Amino acid sequence: MMRLRIDLAYDGRDFHGWAAQPGLRTVQGELEEWITRVLRLDDPAQLTVAGRTDAGVHARGQVCHLDVPGASEQTALDLLRRLHRVLPDDVVVADVRPAPAGFDARFSAIWRRYSYRVCPASRTPDPLLRGHVVALRHDVDLRLLDEAAPLLLGLRDFAPFCKAREGATTVRELRELRATGHDDGTIEIHLLADAFCHSMVRSLVGALLAVAGGRRDVAWLERVAAHPERHNEVPVMPAHGLVLEEVGYPPDDLLASRAAEARAVRTLDDLRQERA
Amino acid sequence: MMRLRIDLAYDGRDFHGWAAQPGLRTVQGELEEWITRVLRLDDPAQLTVAGRTDAGVHARGQVCHLDVPGASEQTALDLLRRLHRVLPDDVVVADVRPAPAGFDARFSAIWRRYSYRVCPASRTPDPLLRGHVVALRHDVDLRLLDEAAPLLLGLRDFAPFCKAREGATTVRELRELRATGHDDGTIEIHLLADAFCHSMVRSLVGALLAVAGGRRDVAWLERVAAHPERHNEVPVMPAHGLVLEEVGYPPDDLLASRAAEARAVRTLDDLRQERA
What we know:
The structure is a homodimer.
Chain A: E1 2-10, H1 27-38, E2 48-49, E3 58-68, H2 73-86, E4 91-98, E5 111-119, E6 134-135, H3 142-148, E7 154-157, E8 171-181, E9 187-193, H4 200-212, H5 218-225, E10 242-248, H6 255-275
Parallel strand pairs in A: 3-10, 5-6
Antiparallel strand pairs in A: 1-3, 1-4, 2-3, 5-9, 5-10, 7-8, 8-9
């Protein structure tokens, strides 16, 4: 059995998210079907992914893995070449290679980096970018955004910004949250954390833009961030502005221990959920 | 009668080009229909455009004009606001304003700037940009491209790069032709000329990339460029990599004389065509 690491990008527009669902077009479903066919597997391919993106969310640096019986280096090369030929043009596999020992696309990951891109109301939106840049109805004051962002950084409970899953922890470490302006007037917000809860990126961006757009002030953001559960004043931004940009892994010799650690936390979560 | 200048951008993918054609979705057709409706015009709106883009070609800085009986500054503001509401999301009107005296979107223009963007074969194409970045099957040597581009600059007969129109001149002045690399590995070729003949940009880019991809050498390009008519070794690149970026006009006091000049050349062309 050989584990293969697959790096890929996709346009999320015409997908019902990553996770396979019967009767719906999903990235996992599309990939697993083609991999099973191309490798002529007896059992359907099963992918494990680093970031389960929601419906409409894009990815430039998604990572997943797959265990293939009797695979070799050559299998990886063949798979890459053949997937290039058969996949629809909204999924692009960038690389397929044998995974290092201990690698788990989900549990070995130490961080995920997302971007969210918007066009302020005072700028004309570029129709060529409308699939991944959200046109706002207000302007964005980058000074206010820079002032508000640090309030959300660090290891904290992101419950006010998450869709609750009973028993699951919403404690995360947000390590980067900053905005950059593009030449075309659009603004890109960059977020990096060990992991993100469901709807967390879109809620953080919604809260920040409420402040940067002048509808809320920093005191509001502080109050919201201290709330013990999902806060109903936090707007959740549309999916199509969001891109999973990159997934970070530790050096190869730490892959296995990191995976064991993350799996333990997740198992604890699952136990808590069962009890709840 | 007031002349309005309209600045707009569009994603050319789902349009059969700019020019209205019965039964086909075109940018002109879409705009004229909505303008006629929104302004409740007795006679259908008739637009004159700076750059008649082909099927599949995009625009970020297209310019057109329209004569409206009894219009005022307020008409321009109202039209802009209402078009924002009703137009489909692949056409974005950036501005509508009263045109200065002597302005003609087509004949007053002194230059057109286009871009053509490609992704070399060694880079993973970004699926989010696939609508306007052409994935190549070869790499691009920017050094070769920089060496070849100057050979095509200046006032010359671009017949080898144009679809012939009997009697029409193919003499143009190509003032800029250069490539820039984006951070994502894509390459953008910038072209600026007084005007472009039919298929000229896509042929120039095709010829340059043949050299920059190593399939042809500079001697070939020189031979092709000296050919008296359309050269069949010049590849015509696909439409979707091409964007009309900007149209240049002279200062307001020169608009009318420039239009008269350009109209005279065009009339001469038309006369020649009639005779041919």
